Records
---
Amino acid sequence: MIKFRGRYIIQAEDKLAKIPEKGSIFLYRGCISKSKYPGIEVSTQKTLRLLGFKVYTSQDEACCGGLAYFSGFMPFKSFTTLIGWNLSIAKKYAENLVTPCNGCYASFYHVLKDIDKKGGKVEVEKVLHKVGVKPAWDIKVFHVAEVFYKVKEKIIKLQKVKLNGLKVACHYGCHYLKTFPEEVLGSAENPTFMDELVELLGGKVVNYEEKHICCGGDFFQPEYTPEVSLKITEAKLRNIREAEADLLLVPCPMCLSVFDEAPKKGDKNLGLPVLHISEFIGLILGLDPLKDLGLQAHLTPVNIPQTEDYLKKFKSLRRTLHQ
Amino acid sequence: MAELREVLTKEEKTVLVKAVTPCLQCGICTSSCPPARFTDPKLYFSPRLLASEILKDNLDYLAKSETIWRCFLCFECVNLCPHSVPLPDIILRLREYALTKGLSKKIYDVLQGPIENLIKTGAIFPFGRINLRKFIGLPSTTELPEESLKKLKRIFEETGFKSFVDKLKLTYKNLDKV
C-alpha cells in the first residue's frame, strides 16, 4: 500500500515508442462520459477510426472502481479484481487499452504497478477464474491524448477545420500528471505534448499561472466540500481568463465537468468554452459539433468561431435533448 | 478513542509512522496544496500538520477528524516532497479505518448512493443523457448485459466488497439510532 515514488522521468522517446499508431485498440469509456458527456465517448470512437485505428468497445465494461477505492469504500482486493475484469474484457479485442479519462487511467496503473508488490494476485485470479474470466495483466494502458500526439502527422494531414490562431489554454489534470509521473509523456513537471499538438494544428497556446494545480474536482469533493472545490476551480478559471484564452482544453471528463459547471455554481463571468481533447480533435477532423460530437451536453456553450453553425442551432436543440 | 487504537494493529501503525519518518516538516506540501489554500482557516487543513500528527502517533485523533476527508488526492505533495512521503496513500489508509469505525457519517451520506449504484449496476454514476446518446448515434443503453452483471456481482461478493458495504450500512444505521 505504501510505496516510495521514484522521481525520475522516462525520456519522451521511450514512452512515445510504446504508444500504438495503428491496429486494434480497446476503448475503455469510463462512467462520466456514459452519464454526463456522451460526446466524449462518440468523439473518441470516431476520431480514432478516422485516424486509422480499429476501435472496439464492450457493453461488459464495468466501473474502474477509482472513486470507491480512493474514498476508502472498496478493499484493494475488490479494486484489483474489478480492474482485472476490465482488462480481460479488453484483451478479447486488443493488446492496447485506451481511455479518455484521467481517473480510469490512474486506476489501471495503480493496479498494474502494485499487483505484484502487494500480493493477493493469486486470490484475485482465482475469483476471476470462478466467473470464467482469464486474467490479462500484460495489456498496455494509454491515455487517448497520448495516442493523438503519436499520430499528430496524420491529424495534420486530415485537418479540415483551421484554428487560425485560436488561443488555447491546456490543463493536463492531476491523475494523469502526478499519480505516476514516470509514465507521463515527457516531463511530469512541465508537460508540453498537448500544447505542441495545439500549435502544430495552427492554434496559439496561452500560458497561465498555476497551470498544473488541481481543477477542484477530485472524486467526491464537489459534493463533500463544495465551497473549497469551487474556489479552486474559480482560481484556475480566473488565471485562464486573465491569459485571454478562447478555449480550455482538458484530457479528463471530470476536469471537463468541473470547469463546465463552475459558472452555473459561482461567478458567471468566469466561464469559457471547455473541450475534451477528443472533442477538440473531432472538431478539427471536421466532425459535426451537434450530430457527431454532442457538444450540446456542455453547460457553457462552446462559442468559438469553429462552432458558429452549431451555436445557431444550439438553443432550440438543447431544450429537446437536455434531459 | 482507545477503541480505534485497537483497530490499527501495531504492525499497521508502524507502517504508517515509518512512511512518514523521513518527513522534514519543510512544509512544501502545505504550500502547494490546493485545499490547504482555500479551506476556511477555522477548519485549517494542512498536509504538513497531518504528517506531524502521524509522527506524534496521533492516528486515532486523525481518524476522528474531518481533516483526512479534505484532501483532493491531487498527488501534488508527494511529487514535490524531498523524500516522496506518500501522504495520499497514508490518507487513503486512514479513510478506510475511519469509515469502518463509523467515524465518517458525512462522507458516508455523500457516497452511499453512488456506491450502491456501483453494486447494483456496475457503474458508479447513473447512466444518463439517453436522448442525446440516440441523437449522436450511440446505443441508447450502457447497461451491462444481465449475464455479465451477475458475474460482476459475484466478484463483489467473493472479494468482500459487498459485505464491506453492508457492514458500513449497518454501522451507520445504528449510529442514526443512537
Note: The CA atoms of residues 30 and 46 of chain B lie 5 Å apart.
---
Amino acid sequence: MSTPIDALIEKHSDQAYAAAFRLTGNPTDAWDLVQESFLRALEKSDLYDPQFDFGGWLYRVLYRVYLNGRRGRARRREIPLEESPSAPDESLETALECAETQALISKGLDALPADFRACLVLIDIEGRSYEEASDILNWPVGSVAGRLFRARRLLREKLLSSGGTSYDLRAR
Amino acid sequence: MICALVESLLDLYVLERLISFETRLVASHLESCDTCAREASAWRQTLHGLKSLSVPTTPTNLKSALKRSLAAAVSPKPSSHSDFAGDWRPLQIPSLALAFGCMAFLISVSASILGPGPASQSCSDSPSSVCITPFASQSAIRRNP
C-alpha cells in the first residue's frame, strides 16, 4: 500500500538526487545527502506550509543539510562527476575536448568550498536566478552574488592551475 | 588598467548580464586585445561546461531504501522500560535540579535572616576571651579585663 511519504519519495527523489550529486560530486555522498534530507524534512514536517511546493521545501532542506554537514569538515571526494555523453553529430575531436573540459571543471568544482559550490550549482549549473538561489540558501541576494563572483574566479584559478590540455580553458 | 577592468566583467559579459554601456566597453576592448579575447573565450567555455555537466541516473534502489528508512523513522520505537518509567524518567533530572535549587535558596535566606546572633551572647566574662561587636568601629575588638 502506498503512503503519502512513498508518493513524495517517488515524485521528488530524482530531482533531489540530481542536486545532491552536483553538490557532493560522488554517488555515495549524494545518496547519504538525499536520505538525510528526507529524514530531516520528515522531522521538521511541522514547519512545512502545505500551500507551497514540497519539492522546493525539500530543496531548501537539502542545501541546508549539505552546508551544515560540510562546514568545518574536510570534504571527501571519491569519484569525479561523470563526463557528459557527447552528442551524436559531434566529431570525435570535439567530443574528447568536451569530455576533457568537463573533467577539468569537475575537478575544479571539487576544490571549491561548500558555500561557493552551492551558489555555482544553483545559478550556473541549474540556471536559477539570484533571487531563487537567495531563497533556497536563505542568504541575502548580495551574499549570493558575492559568493558566486568569488566562486567563478576561484574555479577559473583552479582550471588554470590544473594540468589540462585545453587551450581555451587555460587562456593565459 | 583597462584589461583588469574588463577581466572583472568577462563572466557577466559572456552571460549577457551587463548593461549596454558596459557591454559596448567590453566588446570594443575584446576586438583590440587578444589576451582578453582568449580569456573571454575561456569564460564562455567554462560557463558552458558548467551548464552541460551531467548527472547519472538515480540508483534504482534509492527509492526503496528511502521508503524503508523513512518508514522506520515514523514507526514508534518499542520501549524496553515500563510506561511509567518512560513517563517520569525524563522529568527526574529537572525535578532534582529544582529541588536542589529551592533548598539552596532557603538555606541562604535563613542564614541571612538569623545572622551571627547578638554580640553579647558570644562574649564571656572570662579574662582570656575576645569579644567582637559588629556595630562598633575597628577599636571594637576589645579584650575583657
Note: Chain B has a mean pLDDT of 77.
---
Amino acid sequence: MTGEGAEAAKGAKGARPDALAGIRTSKRDELRVVGQPLPRHDQAEKVAGSTRYAGDLAFASMLHARLVRSPVPSARITARDASAALAVPGVVSVLFGEDVPRNVIWVDVPGQTVEVAALKASMEVLATDRVRFHGEPVALVIADNQDALAEACDLVAVDYEELPAVFEPDQALADGAPAVHAEGNLLSEWDIDHGDVDAAFAAADVVVEGSYQTQTVDHAYLEPEAGVGWLDDDGVLNLRVATQVVEHYRDVARILGIPEARVRVIAPYVGGGFGGKEDMTVEPYLGLAVWRTRRPVRMQWTRQESLLARPKRHRMRLRYRTAATREGKLLGQEVDITADSGAYAYLSALVLLYSAVHACGPYQVSNVRLRARCAYTNNPPTSAFRGFGGMQVVFGYEAQMDLLARELGLAPAEIRKRNALARGDVLPVGQAIETEVLLAQTIDAVLGRAGGKPRASGPRKVVGRGLACNIQSYGRLVWLNDSAAAWVGFQLDGSLSVRCAVPDIGGGQASSLAQIAAEILAVPMDQITVHFGDSALNPLAGTTTATRQLLMSGNAVYAACVLLREGVLAAVAAATGEPADSLRLEEGRISGPAAGMRLQDALLACRKRNVPIEALGTFFGPKGRPVVKGLHADRVFPDFTFGTHLCDLEVDLDTGQVKLLGYVAAHDAGRAINPRSVQGQITGAVAQGLGMALLEEVVVADGMNQTGGFFQYLIPTATDVPEIDAVVLESGEGMGPFGARGIGEPPIGPPAAAVASAIQDALGARPARLPMTPERVLECVGGHQRLTPAAG
Amino acid sequence: MTAGVALTLTVNGREVSAAAAAHLTLLRWLRDVAGVTDPKYGCGEGICGSCTVLVDGQPVSSCLVLAAQVDGATVTTAAGLLEADGSLGPLQRAFHEKHAAQCGFCTPGMLIAAAAALADGRRRSRPEIREELHGNLCRCTGYGPIVDAIEMAQEEAGR
Amino acid sequence: MFTRPFQFERADQLADACELLRRHGEGAKVIAGGQSLMPLVNLGLVQPEVVIDISRADAGRHVTLVDGYLAVGALMTHARLAADRLAAEAQPLLGAAARKIGNARVRGRGTLGGSLAHSDPAAELPLVLVALGATYEITDGRRSREAKAEEFHLGFLTPQLADDELVVAVRVPRLGPGWGWSFQEVSRRDGDFALAAAAVLVRIAGGVIVESRVAVGGVSDRPLRLADAEIALTGATVSQIGDRIGPIQGIRPVSDTGASAGYRAHLCRVLVTRALAEAGSRSEEAA
C-alpha cells in the first residue's frame, strides 16, 4: 500500500457557474508547469534553516511583552495592583484593560435575528471586571529583558472573587444556569427542515440511531504564537506576526483608535496555522505595547500558554436518527447537534453553520430535520480549526452509514455508492451540487489500491478494515462577499514579480501562485518572485482559511496573468503585423508563424506603445444572500470537495491498543497545481485526523485546563502514523484555476470515522466517543473475545 | 541580571565566545546570544524536537541543556549541514526534492535527527527510519515525505 | 522560556557536588542529563537558586563486573546502557528497559542516577532494579551507604535520599543459569511514560516455576514487588500461571489524563501474565 499516484478521471464537463465567466481552463495534457510535482521555492530556504519566522527577528533595544492570565474559570476581578511589578528593574509598563483605547473585539453572529441582522458578541482585549475562562488575559507586562518580565508577571496582583460557573452546554442552556454573558448562554442556533421527515421515517424499512461525542482538540502547530512590532520611519505601526490573516490590521487599528491606514501586518512564513492563527493572537497586545512605548517589542507565547488559552476545536454531541429503505437508500435524517462554544463567541456561530450544512454527508437525502445549537460555557473558547465544524460531523454520519450497512447486510462501500450525491442533487440546506462528484471513483480508488486485508499478527489480535467518505466545502460562505487581488508584473529582463498579500502557512500558498503564473506567462519558476503576506505593500487576498486561497488568490493571479498575456501579445502583434491569436508566449520569447521576438524586446515594445507590463487581477467569489436561523439557501458555499479514506488496523484484544497497518486516502482535487503539494496536504491532514481519532484531548475539569504541555497533549509521531497512500483524482471541475478544488481541509474529516469503522469491522462494535483510547476500544471487545474481566 | 558565565562554543564551524546568564539554555544562547536562529522553541519540554542540535556529534534537546554545561563543545545546527559554498547538503537536497518541509518549523530539528541517525552508515527500512524520527514532531506533512527524503539520502550515500 | 535566574556551579567530583548541596541548602539542585530537571524548570514548576552540574564529573559511566555482580555507574546514559554488550549478556533486563525510555535525545543525555533520584512511579529503570533486587550505592561526599532498590523508592517522586546525597553506582545481580526474563510495557505512544509495566524473572525447572521475581510499575506511587504473586506462582506450570495469578494485590493505580485506575489495574494483570509467559519460555530455552 505504499507508493503514490495520481489518476486523471474521465468526467463530462458541465456548465460553469457565473462567477467564473471569462476564466478559461486548459486541458491537462496541454499544461507544462501546472501539474508538475516541482520542489517549492520556500522549501529550499526552510531546509537551509534560513527562513525567519515571526519569533526569529530581533531588534536592538527591543522590549519583551507577556500576558498575565486568569488562574480561574469564572470570577469577578475585585482588585488589580501593578506596583510590585513596576518596581522590578527593567519593567517598562504594566497595562490593564483601561489602558486599551478601545478595549473590545466584536464578532458577528449572523442569522440570529428575525430581521437578518448579525448579532454582535464581544470580548475585551484585557479583562477589566470579569474573567470567563481559565487563561483569560488580564494584564500586559512590558520589560526590557525576559528575566525582569518573568519576575514581574508573578508580581502583578489581581484579586478574583469566584463566580458560579457552568461547564456543560446542556447545563448552560437549562433554566437557572449561571449566565456566562448577560444576553444568555445560547450563542447560536441553526435549523434545517427539508422535505417531510416524519413521513420518511414512517415509510422506512429500517431506522438506526446513534449518539456520538467529539472532544476538545488543540491545533498544536509546532510554532507557538509569536511576533515583533515596531514603528517605522513614517510612524506606521508594523506587526510581523505568525498569522493566517493580515487583514487584522483593521482590528488592531480599531482597538488603538487610529486609522486603519496607519497599521501594517506582515505575515512571514508561518509555522503551522490550521485555523489557530485565524483569530488574533499576539497582534492586539504587540500593537498596544508598541503604541505605548514607541519601541520595538517582541512577544513569544510558551507552548503551555498556547495549550491553555488558544481557542480550540468545538467539542460536539451529535445525535442521529437515520431512515432507509431495505435497499439501503437513505430516506431521512434527523440530526441534533450541541456544541461547546466556551467562554467567548469567536467564530462559533459559523462553525456550527458548517456542521449543519455538512451534517448529512456526501449523500442524497430528501428529508432532513436538523437542530443545532452552541452554548457559552466557562470552558476555554473554541473557534476555527481545519474542517471548521464540517469535520466533527463525519464521525456521526459515517457511523450511521456503517450501522445501516450492517443492519441491511450491505458492504460499506456499496451503501455509500448507492447514496452518493451527483451533479444536480440538492443538499438539505438547499444548495445544488453544480460540479461533477467523483465520490464513487474515490471509493473504488482506495479499494483498488488497498489490496487484501492484512492478517492478524497473533492469536490475541484482530484485524479490521474501515471506510469513510466525506464532503467538505472550499471557499468562504458566499454572503461574506469574498474577494482577492493580485498584482503581476514583468521586470524588463523578463523576470516576473507577483504581489499578493496571501499568508503562507506551509501549504505552498505562495508557490502555487508562482506555478500558475509560470504556466500562463511561460516564465521559468526560478525567475518568479512572490511577495506575499504584507497588508501594506501587497493587494489584499483575504484569509488563509476555509480552503479558499487557491480558489481566490489563485484565480486572481490567473486573471492578472491572462490580462498581462493578452496585452503583451497585442503589442507584439501591432509591432510585427502578425495576428495576435497566431502568437505564442514561450520561455524568453514570443513566437509567431513568420518570426519571433525576444521577451525583453517585446516588453520594450509594450513600453513604446503605452501598453502596461503589469496587471492587477481581482477575483470575486460567488455571492449569496445572508442566512437566517432557519437555514435554507440556494448557495451557501462556492463548491465542495469529496473523498474517501480506507484504514486497516489491528486491535490487541487484551489491551485495546490499536496499531494502524495501512491507510489510503483519495480526494478529487479538481486539478492538482502541484501534485506533491496536494499529496502533502492529504498526508498531513490524515495524520492530524488520526491524532484526533486516537490520541488527542484537551482535558478540562470544572473549567480548569488540565493539559499542561506536550507531555500530556499527545500528537501523532512518525511511528503513530502509518504509510499513507495519497491518491489524487482530477475531475477538472473545481472553481479554482485550471479547474482546481481546495484540498487543505477535506482530508482531515474521514480519519476518525475510518478508524472507528475498522474497529467495528474487527470487534463488532465501535467507540462512540473521541478519542478512541485503548480503554474505550477495550470496552468494544465482545465478551467472547475477552481473556480477562473488563476493567472496572 | 545574574553574573554571566563565560562561554566559548564552536557553532557550525565558527568559534563563538559570548558570556551568558547561568540559567540560559543552549537553545536561548544559540538564538538570542549567538544569533543562530534555526533551532526553534517549540515546547520547552524536550518533546517536540524543534530545538534539536548536535553537541559533540550527539543529538540533544537544546532546550534541556544549560549553555554553561557545554562550554567548549562543538555544536551543529541545520545551517551547519550546508556545503562550504552555501549550497544545500545531500540530506537537505533530499528534503527539498521530496517536499519534506511544509511550514518548515520542525525541519531544522528533523534534519539534525536524521543526520544523527544516518551517521552510522547503516541502511534502514522505512519503519526503522520512523523509529529514528519518532522523537521529532511534525504537524504538517504526516511524516511520509520526510521518510521518503531520508530513504533517498540513504540511497545516494550508499552509492 | 521565562525561567527565573539561578547560579551555576560545576562539580568535577561527586563528593564536591555533595559539599555544594550542603553549602547552598534547599535552593540547590543537581543536574546531570537534565531530562527530568529541565522540563520542570522550563515550565516554572521548580525554581532553583543554584544548579550544580555533574554532567562532566569524574564518575562512573560504565558497566563492570565486580564480585560476580554488574556495577553500573550513576552517570551511565540510557543510550549507552541500551547498547552495552556486557549488560546485554549479563543482565538483559537493563538494556530492555533502557531502550523503552523516551527518544534518542532523552537516552543520549539522561542518566541512570538521574532517573533513580527522580523516582517517577512509571519509570522503567527503577522498576527493573526493584525486580532485580539491586542495591544502590549512595554517597554524601564523606560517607557511603547502601540501599536496596525496593527501600529506596519511597513514593511519588520521593527517593530515600538526603538533601546532600547522590547515587554513585548500582549493583545488579547477573542473570543466573536457567533464569528467563521479560519486560513488558504499555504506553500511549512509543517512548511515552508507561501506563503500566511489568518486569519479571523466572526460573523453571522440571516443568514448574521454582523461583520468580515479579515487579510492576505505573500502578502505584512507586515500583511494587509482588511478593504474594511470587509465592503463589511457586510450583506452577506455565499453563497454570493465569489461574495462580488471580487479581493483583497491593496496587493503587491512579486515574489521570493518561488512563483510568481500572484500566491500569487491568493492564497490570495482562502485562504480568505476558511477562511470565515470555520469561518462562526464555527460562526453558536457557535450561
Note: DSSP finds five helices and seven strands in chain B.
---
Amino acid sequence: MALPTLDAMNPTSMWAGPVEQPPLRMAFFMVPNGVHIPDWTPTGEGYDFGLPYILEPLASVKDDLLVLTGLTHDKGRANGDGAGDHARACSSFLTGAQPRKTHGADLRVGISVDQFAAQRVGQSTMFRSLELGCDPAHPAGNCDSGYSCAYSSCVSWGSPGMPMGKETNPRVVFDRLFFDQASQEDGRRNLLRRSILDFVAEDARDLKVRLGRGDQRKLDEYLTGVREIEQRIIRAERQRVEGRPQLPELEQPAGIPDDYGEHVRLIGDMMVAAFQCDLTRISSFMFANEGSNRSYHSIDVPEGHHSLSHHGGDAEKHAKIRKINRFHVDQFAYILNRLKAIKESDGSTLLDNCMIVYGSCISDGNAHNNENLPILLAGKGGGTLRVGRHLRFDEETPMTNLFVSMLDRMNVPVDRFGDSTGRLHGLT
Amino acid sequence: MTRHILILSLLFVAVFARAEQPESSVADLVEQLKSEDRDLRREAAYQLDRLGAKSAEAAPILSEALKDSDQQIWWWSASALAKIGPDAKVAIPILMSGLGGSGQKQYRFAYALGKIGPEAIPSILEGLASEDANVRAGAAQALGWMGGQGEPAISVLIDALADEDDQVNQKASKALGRIGQGAVGALTAALNNDRVRVRWGAARALGEIGPAAAPAAAALLKTTKDDDSDVRAVSMIALGSLDTTTVDVIPAITDAIQDEDVVVRRSAVEALVRSRPHSQRAVATLSELLNHERPEVVLTAVTALGRLGVLAGEALPALRELVDVEAEEVRKAVNMAIRRIKG
C-alpha cells in the first residue's frame, strides 16, 4: 500500500538542508453540454471579480484558481463536417485536433495533452496517468451523427487513433491504487471481509513509533482518509445489493434517480489520494460522456441534461441548466478543497502543486459554439501561476495555448500542441 | 476484477491500435492536393501539415489550397505554411487577401504571415494602409507574430495606435508588445502623444513587454497622472510589470489607490501585486489609508493589503480595528484580507 510523502522520507529534513520541492501534478475535468455562460462569466477582471451563481461554490478556493475567458477550440467546430457537435467537441477538448468523421475503426484525432505529458513524465510514478469518469467509455458505435462513440466518451487519447478507456467503478480504482496485485489474486480480503487497512495495521504501528509527531499526524490522516473511501465504497456496494439506486454503469436514461454526486466525489477522492501518494501525477476525469442526458433528481432537475441544454432561450430551462452547472462546480469545489487540505513536505498544500483544468468543450449548450469556452485553471502550478484572477483573452485564442503553457510547467516544453499558436500570456 | 480490466484493455487495444499508414512523399501529396475529391485533398493537406518544414517544396500548391472552399483544407494549408516559415513566401499575396475575413481565417492567415517573417513585412505594411479595418487589424496581428523580427514595422504600428477602429488599435498595441525591447524607445515617445488612444496603446504595450520596458519607467510615472483614466489605469499596470531599481514606483501606486476612478484603483492593486516583494514598502501608507474619509479608498487599501498577503503582516492591527465596521462590503473585505495575510 502506497504512503503519502512524510517528512521522514525526505533525507534533507533531518539536516536542516533544503526540502525537496513536491512534484507538479495536472488533471483535466470535463463537464458535458456547455454551461449557461451569463451565470458563469465573472463581470470584473484581474483580482477584482465576483463569483457568479454557477461559480459561487468555489468561494473557499477563489484565491487558488484562475477563470479563463475567451479561449477557443476551433477543432470542435464543424469545419465542413456537418452535424455531430458533441462528439467532435469532446474529442478535441484535450487534443486540439479535428476528428475524422467516422464511426469505424479508422478513428483519428490527436494525442491528448494528458497522455502527451504522461508518455514523457509518467515513468516517475507507479501509474503514468489515471483516466476516470462516471459514464463508461464506448469503443465503437455511431453516437453522434456519424461520429464514433469513442469520440464522445473519451477525452484522453494515447495517440491520434487510440482512445484511452476510462475507469468508472470506484471499487476498481481503489483496488488498482491501494491493493497490490498478489493480494487481489488470492482474494484474502474479500474472503475474510476485512479492511485493507487491517493488513497493514501492524506495519503502520511499527512505522508510527519511528516517526515524528507531524508525520504521525499525517499518517493518521492519510489512513483515516483511505478507510473512509473504503467504507463509502462498501456502502455503495451494499446499496446495490439491497436494490437501492445503483451507481451508473451504463448510460442512464432520463429520470432514473441515482447518487451521482457521491460517485463523482468518491472517484475524485481517489484521484486526490493518488496525487497525495505520488502514484501518478496526471489524470483526466469526465463528469459524464459528452451529450449526456443524465437527470439530476437530487437537485430537483428530473429532465435530461442534454434535452435541457437545447433551451431555445427558455428561462425555465436556463434556471435548470444553471442548477446542473452549479452542481458540477460544487463537486469540483469539494475535490479542490480536499487537495487544499493536504500538506506537502515543504509546507505547501497539494493544491499549490497542481494545475487542474475544469471546463466544457462547448460554450453554450444550445448554440453548440466552441469559442469563449467556460474554463477554470485551479492550483498554483508549484508557484508558477498567479491565481485569484479572472483573465480575458483575445478572440480565437486557442485553448491549446493553455496546454503548451501547462506542458512547460510539467517540464515537457513543446513549440506546438494541437492547433496552438504559442503560449498563454498573463498566467504568471 | 483483474481479468475484467485486462479484457477491456485488450478490447481497446485490438480495436484502435492500428498501425499508422506509411507517410506519402511530398510529391505524392502535392498531386493529391490537386484532386477533385475533397477527402483526398483534405488528407493531403493534413499530411503536409504533419510534415511541417519538410513540406517546403509544396508551398506553391499549399498557397493555392488557401483558396479552397473547404475549411479543413485551407486551415491545414495555412498551418503547413506557418510551419514551413520563410520558405513559404510564395504564399504571401494569398495570405494577405484573406486578412479581410474574420474569425479563424483572419487569425490563421495572420499567424502564417507572421511565421513567414520579414519577407512579408512590405505586403503587411500595405495591409496596414488598407481601407478595410479587418485587413488593418489582421496586418497588425501578423506583425506581432514575428516578435523581434517585426522591428522594421515599429513606426507604422505606432501610427496604427491612432487608428479609429478599436480592433486595429488594440492589435497594434499587442503587436508592439510582442516585438518587445526594440519597441521601448518608440513607445516611450508615444506616451507624450496628443491622442489619448495612442498614449493608451503605448502604455498597454509597455506593460506587455514587462521588465525589459524599464527605461520607460519615468515616462510611465507621468502618464499615471494623465487626464484620461484609461491611460492612468494601463500605465499603472505597466509600472507594476517593470523590474526597476532606479525608479521608485510605489508612491505612484499608492497615489492611484486614492484615484477617483474605480478602474485606476483596481489597476493600482494589480500593480502592487505585480511589484512584490518591493511593494511591501507600501504597507505603511496603505495602513494609513485605512482611515481615509472616502470609503472606496478604504476598501481599495484593504483589498491591496490582503492581496499582499504575508508581506502585509504589520497592517494586521490596523485591519483588526475595522472588523466591526458598519459598511458590510468593507467588513467582508477586512475579514478576507486578514485571512489572506495570515496565509
Note: The two ends of chain A are 37 Å apart (CA to CA).
